Amino acid sequence: MLFKQQVWLRQKLLVLGSLAVGSLLYLVARVGSLDRLQPICPIEGRFGGASSQAELPLRALQFKRGLLHEFRKGNTSKEQVRLHDLVQQLPKAIIIGVRKGGTRALLEMLNLHPAVVKASQEIHFFDNDENYAKGIEWYRKKMPFSYPQQITIEKSPAYFITEEVPERIYKMNSSIKLLIIVREPTTRAISDYTQVLEGKERKNKTYYKFEKLAIDPNTCEVNTKYKAVRTSIYTKHLERWLKYFPIEQFHIVDGDRLITEPLPELQLVEKFLNLPPRISQYNLYFNATRGFYCLRFNIIFNKCLAGSKGRIHPEVDPSVITKLRKFFHPFNQKFYQITGRTLNWP
């Protein structure tokens, strides 16, 4: 009798298991069918006109992204990549800076768009003489695999302040789109200092206070020899870039607003890159624990930026902050005038 009950129970479990698997397969098929119902969206503009070959479902690009991820892990053969027409493309847009302006956040958020593929690591091709000497083909092979109609974006914040970079990028592509994300200059300088300070403390090394670095002790004026201060003089660096590229090829992203209201900033970037609008509020949710927005790619995959983002800044003498803001003010005004974008900086 006991044996019969065990057999009956085993049969019941098998039936329930089959039902569960069947339900899961139905959901997968359902999601797939919904994806296929998405409208066909031509990606056109300066990156190439629309054609029958250039038209593709953006959901299909999301599938390709998964395939690329598997290839990077070594789980996909080169033959599969060839069959799916995957290529390594030179970037059509570069986030050239600014350090501690929010370059990583911007890159990760743009990667929400199915027509965008990001280079995960900073390549440092144009600002590093040794890398640059390896040639453009070396640079291209550092790019991720992508679908031909996708655009590749890389970011290396050092590009913005390195003298040789504008000419080098111009030689590669004179019509490339350039993204610059900036924060209020004093806040950015303190953030820059905070990152360096953390690195020193990790190695049990001492470091000067921010006030001692930012203010020249001999003149009591702002120390323009301090790199964190120099980097925040945005207009000085931008003028160097304008010798090679017209202002229309630049887009200024408000890094402070990207923290508090990311969607409007991302929509402006989509428009600048001639991408169909696809990033929505659904893709962005506020994480109260971290104090930042995190990314939602789909119902399964979410992503928050690394814990190193959003470091707590040390307290800085208010008189030094006032002095710095007064120093940056005329440079900021000129930056607004050149770019045509006025930011809410004190």
CATH topology: Rossmann fold
Largest sheet entry: 5 strands, parallel
Give me the Rg, rounded.
25 Å
Mean model confidence by pLDDT = 84
Range of helix content: 40-55%
User: In order across it, which strands form the biggest sheet?
Assistant: 5-7-4-8-9
Individual helix count: 14
Judging from the principal axes of the Cα atoms, what is the shape? globular
User: Order of helices and strands, N to C?
Assistant: HEEHHEEHEHHEEHEHHHHEHHEEEH
Could you list the spans in which at least 5 consecutive residues all have pLDDT below 50? Answer: 21-55
The figure for the number of domains is: 1
Number of strands: 12
The CATH architecture category equals 3-Layer(aba) Sandwich
Q: In CATH's first tier, which class applies?
A: Alpha Beta
**Strand portion:** 5-15%
CATH-assigned homologous superfamily: P-loop containing nucleotide triphosphate hydrolases
Structure description:
The chain is α/β, with parallel strands linked by helices. It has a single domain, classed as P-loop containing nucleotide triphosphate hydrolases (Rossmann fold). Helix content is 45%, strand content 13%. It is built from 14 helices and 12 strands. The chain has helices at residues 2-36, 58-72, 78-83, 103-110, 129-132, 136-141, 165-172, 185-202, 210-214, 227-231, 234-241, 255-260, 262-272, 318-339, and strands at residues 40-42, 55-57, 87-88, 93-97, 116-118, 145-146, 151-155, 177-182, 250-254, 284-287, 292-296, 302-303. The strands form 4 sheets. The protein has a 5-stranded parallel beta sheet with strand order 5-7-4-8-9. It has a 3-stranded antiparallel beta sheet with strand order 10-11-12, with no helix packed on it. Strands 1-2 form a two-stranded antiparallel sheet. Strand 10 (284-287) and strand 11 (292-296) form a beta hairpin. Helix 11 (234-241) runs parallel beside helix 14 (318-339). The protein is globular, with a radius of gyration of 25 Å. Pfam families: Sulfotransfer_1. One of its GO terms (biological process) is regulation of viral entry into host cell. The active site is at residue 100.
